[in-house]
Design brief:
The structure is a single chain. The chain is an all-alpha fold and 486 residues long. Helices cover 73% and strands 0% of the residues. Helix 2 runs parallel beside helix 4, helix 2 packs parallel to helix 6 and helix 7 packs antiparallel against helix 14. It starts with a helix and ends in a 12-residue tail after the last helix. It has 20 helices and no strands. It has one domain: MFS general substrate transporter like domains (Growth Hormone, Chain: A), CATH 1.20.1250.20. This is Niacin/nicotinamide transporter NaiP.
């Protein structure tokens, strides 16, 4: 059953179902104003959603040292390990919070509605991000990241289901990709905060707090959602069926493990686990390539490039600290440039093109393309380009390619997961699969923190997961060209 009746008749409901879908229309033709509005509002929620997550990535190298009572330029190895471990704990907490919130709010959206639940999720992540600005201990940052992530995970689950239900079949892949790709604007906002505010140290060591204060702004979006959005017709019809048929119960988590949906659930959880683990273990590490290069260049200029830091004297360590402090702004700016090239430019293109690629290669073909490309590009960056004597220009040209291939498959979750479950379970299934993937990735990051792995070690151990993603995809169900299951 398609959902583009409004595309053909101005008098019909904007997302009313129709059994006839014109075959000669392109994905962007015949889309009603209301359908565009749904995409815009869902995407704005996701933009701010991602900003709330990425503002920590942009500021963690400044925030955590201060919360530990030290400096980001401190060279004490024990302190650096403590900073890295607390950052890993915070990211793991964020992933676990997203898993819990995604499952909880996904189920809630099947029961009380998409638009109502979206309001709750946005308020959740907005308020707790703002509160993070007042954290004064590492454990508080970890706890607040969990609460922020509950709203973040829930918003994605609800918004992706709503976009899929409102759009016609021909438009779903591209619209779902656009929705997920809008995340780059959230990343761009975080990059801007890091580049123009945090690097300038306008409030000294407390500057990082400004980024979290901005996090309260998305709460204003909930007023517009309450005013403009209504529940999708498919959801309304599912509620009617549930009233007369006990087997059509909405929001049932246990139903995902029934025979009819078990394969889809397992495959989707595995894909999300692989994608989220490689994101935090490989993609994020890759975006810091220019930062690491800048730090090395500072040491070269200071005549400290050949020092064995494991056996360095106190005087040499002091020289290193002073050299890094003196170029702190430049190093931060290089970090933000790398974040832009990897996560915004390359990653954004990879996300937005998933829908078009999946229309050509199929959903499975698109996932294979991105996972295989991610495997190859990660090996090239971490084992050839980054450790080699390659220029800054070469790295800047390759980082968008790396970002495209290691992030693009994430849009597939918004495109593919809603196609795997019926309306009564769509929010529950989409939310569970995407966010249960956070549990696996959180376990990997938590392990790296407990074992005190360096970022280099973490990325090395997680690169092979891209290859596992290819194998998992081969076990998946192909849904290209199919109607959303009722």
């Amino acid at each position: 059953m398609s959902h583009d009746a409004s595309s053909d008749s101005p008098d019909s409901a904007p997302d009313a179902p129709s059994n006839i879908e014109p075959s000669n229309l392109k994905w962007n033709q015949g889309i009603s104003n209301y359908q565009w509005l749904v995409l815009v509002i869902a995407s704005l929620g996701w933009v701010f959603d991602v900003f709330e997550g990425q503002v920590f990535v942009a500021s963690m190298n400044d925030a955590m040292p201060q919360l530990l009572g030290t400096s980001s330029a401190d060279i004490d190895d024990a302190t650096k390990k403590a900073i890295a471990s607390w950052n890993n704990y915070a990211m793991a907490s964020f992933l676990l919070g997203g898993a819990f919130g995604g499952i909880l709010f996904g189920m809630l959206s099947d029961k009380i509605g998409r638009s109502k639940t979206m309001i709750y999720t946005i308020l959740f992540y907005s308020v707790f991000t703002c509160i993070t600005a007042f954290a004064n201990a590492p454990w508080q940052m970890v706890a607040l990241r969990f609460l922020v992530a509950m709203g973040v995970g829930g918003e994605w689950a609800v918004a992706s289901a709503m976009v899929a239900e409102v759009m016609p079949k021909r438009s779903r892949p591209v619209m779902g990709s656009i929705f997920h790709a809008s995340s780059v604007f959230g990343t761009l906002m975080a990059v801007a905060v890091g580049y123009f505010i945090i690097s300038r140290q306008v409030m000294g060591d407390n500057t990082w707090r400004l980024g979290f204060l901005i996090g309260v702004v998305p709460a204003l979006l909930t007023v517009f959602i309450r005013w403009k959005l209504r529940e999708p017709d498919q959801w309304v019809q599912a509620q009617e069926r549930a009233k007369t048929d006990a087997t059509q119960k909405t929001g049932s988590l246990s139903a995902l493990f029934q025979t009819a949906y078990l394969r889809n659930t397992i495959v989707a959880v595995a894909l999300a686990t692989i994608g989220l683990t490689t994101f935090w273990g490989c993609h994020i590490y890759g975006k810091d390539t220019l930062k690491r290069r800048a730090e090395q260049q500072v040491l070269v200029d200071a005549g400290l490039a050949d020092v064995n830091w494991a056996a360095a004297s106190d005087a040499e360590k002091g020289q290193r600290t002073e050299a890094l402090k003196a170029e702190k702004d430049t190093i931060k700016q290089e970090e933000m440039i790398g974040m832009f090239l990897t996560m915004v430019l390359g990653g954004g293109l990879g996300l937005v093109l998933f829908g078009s690629i999946s229309d050509v290669l199929g959903r499975k073909g698109a996932f294979v393309f991105y996972h295989l490309g991610g495997l190859i590009s990660a090996i090239l960056l971490f084992y050839v380009l980054a450790p080699g004597d390659y220029s800054r220009a070469v790295l800047m040209l390759f980082l968008p390619v790396f970002g495209f291939l290691t992030l693009g498959m994430h849009a597939g979750y918004a495109v593919y997961f809603p196609e795997l479950f019926p309306t009564r379970l769509r929010g529950t299934g989409t939310g569970f699969c995407f966010n249960a993937g956070r549990i696996g990735s959180a376990a990997a990051i938590l392990a790296s923190g407990l074992l005190s792995w360096t970022p280099t070690q973490s990325s090395t151990y997680m690169i092979p997961l891209f290859g596992v993603g290819v194998v998992v995809t081969l076990l998946a169900k192909e849904t290209r060209g199919e109607e959303l299951p009722e």
